[in-house]
Amino acid sequence: MGKQIIDEISGLLLIYSDGSIERPRSCKVDAVDQVYNLIAPVTASQAFVDGVATRDLEINPNTGIWARIYLPETLPEMSQVEKYPIVLHFHGGGFCIGSADWRCCNLFLSRLVKQCRVICVSVDYRLAPEHRLPAACEDAMESVEWLHRLARGDWEDPWLSRYGDFARCVLVGESAGGNLVHEVAIRAAAAMESLRPLVLRGGIMIHPGFVREKRSRSEMETPPDLAMLRTEMVDKLFRLALPKGSTKDHPIANPMGPFAPNVQHMNLPPFLVAIAEHDLMRDTQFEYCEAMKIAGKSVEVLISKNVGHCFYLHDNLVNTDANFSKQADNIFDAIRTFITTCCRDTSKYKLHP
After folding, report:
1. For labelling alongside 30, which of 24, 151, 231, 257 has CA 20 to 30 A away?
2. What integer pLDDT is reported at residue 86 of this predicted model?
3. What pLDDT was estimated at residue 352?
4. Are 119 and 154 spatial neighbours (Cβ–Cβ below 8 Å)?
5. Where does residue 225 rank: exposed (0-12), middle (13-18), buried (19+ CB within 10 A)?
6. What pLDDT sits at residue 1?
7. Backbone torsion region of residue 95, taken as left when φ is above 0, otherwise alpha when ψ lies between -120 and 50, otherwise beta
8. Nearest 5°: CA angle at 215, between 209 and 220?
9. Catalytic choice (101, 124, 139, 279)
């Protein structure tokens, strides 16, 4: 008898009886065609396409961490080329699926760099269950340290070294990537001075994957079709991703829980937390924001009305539904304003092309 599927997550992650794991990137089942359209791999293009060029590079050959860089096109009539704030991005996927080359990530980040005038580094980190947490956190922090070495001139990157302002770096992550934004912020808090000239100016968490062991009301009462996510899927993702023996009160899943470090005396940057009204995890996201405010941290909250988890990544809905389109516009507007505000106190650089 050949190997059998013993566990899976919506066909996106297949675990076999021989221990092997597969993450299909295509499917012939019509019902899930739209999902696979979102995760279809997109090849990087150093030629500008719709105002954005992309390039892949290796961060750590030993662990396989790599990143995709997004560079906005400079308008021909500009006599000078500005140095852009750097967005360090962590994709979502419950720590078990996701990739920096997913089509939905490429669409989101292409729009972000054009509208916000930033250069973006999107990190492709190790995934569970092959690499359980805290592997993704370690990879995320390694990407910060990699940027730091680049900032201090250990070597040069043709895009980041020329166009990126390392003194204006903002963390961005959606879903599980939002958890990584928090983790990087608290890990970097004790090393702020040693990271210079790299400066983390802020963190943006879009629908972060914050949960707790005890079910929240929003988890129990939100219909899956509105949430665009199922509690069973969330449970399984964390079961496969968290260290063995851990519950959902682990600090990476529940950063406001009983086992999380006290952030009151940590030097954390300001945060923007985007919450979808129908997200299963909205209650725990609000709990996080309240806990951070009680600890004296700067937290701005954006609520997207009548939409579910990571709705803005579904371009077919954003392009056809007026409310989806409006709420997606609001997210990009809030991100642009937040980045501008975070970076306001830093002098503006100009560089002749």
Report:
1. 231
2. 98
3. 30
4. no
5. exposed
6. 60
7. left
8. 95
9. 279
How far is Cα 125 from Cα 241, in angstroms, rounded to an integer? Answer: 13
What backbone phi and psi angles, to 5 degrees, belong to 203?
-135, 135
Contacts of residue 303, defined as CB under 8 A and 6 or more positions apart, other chains included, come to 275, 276, 277
Active site residue 279: yes
Distance between alpha carbon 165 and the CA centroid of its chain, in Å? 20
Backbone φ and ψ for 29, nearest 5 degrees, come out as -80, 120
Separation CA 149–CA 144 (nearest Å): 9
- The pLDDT assigned to 145 comes to 97
Amino acid code (one letter) for 140: A
Q: Reduce the DSSP state of residue 317 to 3 states and report it.
A: helix
Cα–Cα distance for residue pair 214/333, rounded to 1 Å: 34
Q: How confident is the model at residue 348 (pLDDT cuts 50, 70, 90)?
A: very low
**Measured between alpha carbons, how far is residue 132 from residues 198, 329, 350 in Å?**
28, 35, 43
Helix (H, G, I), strand (E, B) or coil at 226: helix
Which of the following is catalytic: 99, 122, 175, 246?
175
The string of DSSP codes covering 261-307 is PP-TTS-PPPEEEEEETT-TTHHHHHHHHHHHHHTT--EEEEEETT-
pLDDT grade, residue 58 (50/70/90)?
A: very high
**268/200 Cα distance (integer angstroms):** 9
Tokens standing for residue 194: 């040693």
The amino acid sitting at 139 is: D
Decide: pTM greater than 0.85: yes
Q: Please tell me the distance from the alpha carbon of residue 26 to that of residue 28, in angstroms, as a whole number.
A: 7
**CA angle 112–117–119, rounded 5-degree value:** 75
- Helix then strand then coil, in percent of the chain rounded to 5, is 35, 20, 45
pLDDT band at 306 (very low <50, low <70, confident <90, very high): very high
Residue in 89, 148, 309, 314 annotated catalytic: 309
CA distance 319 to 179: 28
Q: Which helix (H) or strand (E) holds 82?
A: strand 81-82
